[in-house]
Amino acid sequence: MLYDTVGPALLATLPPGRFIKTLDLNTTFVRPTATGRLTGRGRVVTRNGDNAILEGTLYDADDQIIATATATALVVDVA
Questions:
Q1: What's the per-residue H, E or C state across 20-69?
Q2: Of all helices (H) and strands (E), which one includes residue 4?
Q3: Residues 6+ apart with CB under 8 A from 67
Q4: What backbone torsions phi and psi does residue 46 show, to the nearest 5 degrees?
């Protein structure tokens, strides 16, 4: 689920014909959650050329942090 927040955060900044490869994704689980609505927020922390560091946070219905993730991605041309 956190991958689905960090990837689109970077994809939204790319022109047509470019895509991303995730090089790594590290997740930290903060607390358990019951069933219900979850909200994910992703952002691009930094981008240097074709390399990017991404961050995502998953919240429960009470806006409590459930999990966080960081990722490193490479921007590539679509084949």
A1: EEEEEEEEEECCCCCCCCCEEEEEEEEEECCEEEEEEEEECCCCCEEEEE
A2: helix 3-11
A3: 2, 27, 28, 29, 30, 57, 58
A4: -155, 150
Give the residue numbers spanning the domain of 52. 3-77
For 27-67, write each residue's pLDDT tens digit: 999 999 888 899 999 999 999 999 999 999 999 999 999 99
Q: What is the CATH number of the domain that holds 60?
A: 3.10.129.10
Q: State how far the Cα of 6 lies from the Cα of 8, in Å rounded to an integer.
A: 6
> Which amino acid appears at position 61 of this protein?
A
Do residues 40 and 52 lie in contact, with contact meaning Cβ atoms separated by under 8 Å? no
pTM over 0.85: yes
The total of structural domains in the chain comes to 1
Question: Tell me, what amino acid is at 72?
Answer: T
Half-sphere exposure of 55 (CA within 13 A, CB side): 5
